[in-house]
């Protein structure tokens, strides 16, 4: 077990680090995605004394934070991260941004210098609070070692209060190594208030609206409404009232497959979204935010709500009541199967067909396929039921870490990471954690040797790059990246597929074997159409 | 050339993005380490219109910021980075922290949403200013598109004002695509004030101090004093007065090799540093900060200045005057050569001997060798003259990016990156940029399959990890990482060395060929001694 040789050890008392680990466990947090440094060594030692906490080593902090996001989306409760001072927190931020946009509860434990060391501006000193606040979450810094027990409880409660957020505990090294009696927990610790709801329409009013103006109404589902129950209720509403129903562009967790209605997602391209919402005079948001375009484009609208339309907010838990109110019966979906795997040189369309045809029961898809993934939603509509986790905050490098977290949360579900090549490079060391933990993840790299999304966006923002210099920044060839070689370097068995048949064979084999596999799916080099 | 099809184009006017690129060039910034996204597409297009700016694509923002740091340390002037909104800036922060500690001038250009889009809380919206301020640098946000020319000039001046800092320009997409007349540059633009100096001792007083109390005085050199001239002056002072002379623990750029005095560096371990400074009653800082331990440890002092000692600050430019004042002659250094390359199974000591024996003339060493690199300073003292760039801010993942920047700054100097395995994983995609740009970099991975520094630190903070769970967080085996395979995946020719002879053969071959190479030097698995 972890031992403190320091004179501050007192019989019968735990070190601060042990208090933190024990309190996390008592509040239901039993996985820690860790990238520790010197200031976290007592926390590391405490893991031996408190074996119920599962540590998962990540080789980069952005893997730890993305894994905590993926874990929360599947487990429905937070994991901890263990990060090394400000620079460690900084490396975690991009995927904490995605977690924030997914409303995933995450509890960061960020080691800090001993309190008496903080004023010395030692090399690793920086403003950790500022980074915690950047996530729009709560930041918890103890005033004394005796505060740790209460403080960690408050942090977990803050993270898990609906709709979920990032909570950051700053753990000074001296508080971590001291063995100090803790202040008693209060019976009724002050609860963090959930964010004020802005629900402004109830079942009766929504029912009236849809009975009278369904052809001019759109239901937009997000957050908790994209689980299977929400999608089924929305499909009943659509069947009964004839209203349009859409799912937000990047849901945190979307139920998919043949047992749930395949509802259209609001398009990423503003042009497409504008078309989907055209003519609507009432937009009923259910767990979704008011839709805005991802970026601004010259001469195009940023707010996607049609001019003059009224925006309503319906509570997610009222969705099935609304379906009942409207008397909607569950639409009968004709049983269907995805087609047999296709053949021929690989392209985005037959790649999607292969994945759809072979997708196992109850899979989890971590989807950062980006441009090359456009055919996936249609192809997988009749695959077995599965969940899809998407890029909620637009900070790329999310897909592989989220797959790690999902696989830790659901060890008996196959996880498929559909990952574009450019985005894969940001947090590629996630592969090593997959190997270390022998996670059942099949990574498919959609390798088109380009930041294809940027070649598209370059045109959409109203400019052109005819020149070699600008093209060089959007092209990932020279040299081509061999992801199979990289994966093998990180200990993940890997192969390359150039045809649909090869992909099907390799995907089937990867799914049949335990542990992680990577398939580098070599697509035609992308160029704007 | 870059063209704006938007109606805002006016004849004779440049887009905001072109203004920014042109102003950077006018201020002497002609390299841009870039990881762009949609909001930076006009900047990308402008690179075609303004071909004097050299864009260098990086696959992760931490590579771009570390490269800008390495570039500044060698070129003595800033490079630009191009980053994508808050999450892109977040990924750059850890190496900006190192740049801050190195006093490297860096100019970040961070694309932001169009100004009218910023209030919509679109998915990528976040507080970019907060991240810029975290670097302790300046943040420049234009109030209008007409401000860009002035603003970029101010940012470059802020970055380059002594001693050097990180300046961040926030570039909204609409200002970037608009073609707007610029406010005229003022003749005397308000200069950024250099940080107030705290110089409190001049040549005469320092001379008097050293003549009378040399045996109780220590000169600690940092910043600009670690160039060859400073080291020679300090060696003359030591020879004349008999004072102890030390170099700070992690210098930004340290001249080394047989033409410069091999001055001892202040130890990383507080125990060692305390020993080096013991008995000093006067500590004369020359470009260095007051020494403090990297971390706090139970029962050990954090401030390394001996009790009761007086701390003085001497200006770097007074160092050679002080040597003259004391009448110090340059010590004659007997000509020496490093020994012939050794043989036998590889270990940290013979690895250092191989590097030292084969180090080419005028090399640059990017040193993130950490625990495995302890024998390097002694071994390379008689190697040909070279510069060493170290981990100034303790944020690991710095060595490979800094090597990229150094190689771009000095295309005719061989760059050697000595890189520990754990740290290499943070920013490993730097290898791809080395391949893309065909940079003459030889990476040697000191692969001991452990966070050895943490195994050491675990003991030093007064705790132990006897258990499997804590050990699992400090060990990088299961699976072992094959860096040669990873390097080949990123397009860098690579090999593995298990003996000193193999390392010597491979190192010689890598130096003889242009372009990047990686050698995965397999050391005995580290365990605390």
From TrEMBL, chains A, B:
<keyword id="KW-0100">Branched-chain amino acid biosynthesis</keyword>
<dbReference type="Pfam" id="PF02776">
    <property type="entry name" value="TPP_enzyme_N"/>
</dbReference>
<feature type="domain" description="Thiamine pyrophosphate enzyme TPP-binding">
    <location>
        <begin position="385"/>
        <end position="520"/>
    </location>
</feature>
<keyword id="KW-0786">Thiamine pyrophosphate</keyword>
<keyword id="KW-0274">FAD</keyword>
<feature type="domain" description="Thiamine pyrophosphate enzyme N-terminal TPP-binding">
    <location>
        <begin position="15"/>
        <end position="122"/>
    </location>
</feature>
<dbReference type="InterPro" id="IPR011766">
    <property type="entry name" value="TPP_enzyme_TPP-bd"/>
</dbReference>
<feature type="region of interest" description="Disordered">
    <location>
        <begin position="325"/>
        <end position="347"/>
    </location>
</feature>
<dbReference type="InterPro" id="IPR012001">
    <property type="entry name" value="Thiamin_PyroP_enz_TPP-bd_dom"/>
</dbReference>
<keyword id="KW-0285">Flavoprotein</keyword>
<dbReference type="InterPro" id="IPR045229">
    <property type="entry name" value="TPP_enz"/>
</dbReference>
<keyword id="KW-0028">Amino-acid biosynthesis</keyword>
<comment type="pathway">
    <text>Amino-acid biosynthesis; L-valine biosynthesis; L-valine from pyruvate: step 1/4.</text>
</comment>
<protein>
    <recommendedName>
        <fullName>acetolactate synthase</fullName>
        <ecNumber>2.2.1.6</ecNumber>
    </recommendedName>
</protein>
<feature type="compositionally biased region" description="Pro residues">
    <location>
        <begin position="332"/>
        <end position="345"/>
    </location>
</feature>
<comment type="similarity">
    <text>Belongs to the TPP enzyme family.</text>
</comment>
<comment type="pathway">
    <text>Amino-acid biosynthesis; L-isoleucine biosynthesis; L-isoleucine from 2-oxobutanoate: step 1/4.</text>
</comment>
<dbReference type="Pfam" id="PF02775">
    <property type="entry name" value="TPP_enzyme_C"/>
</dbReference>
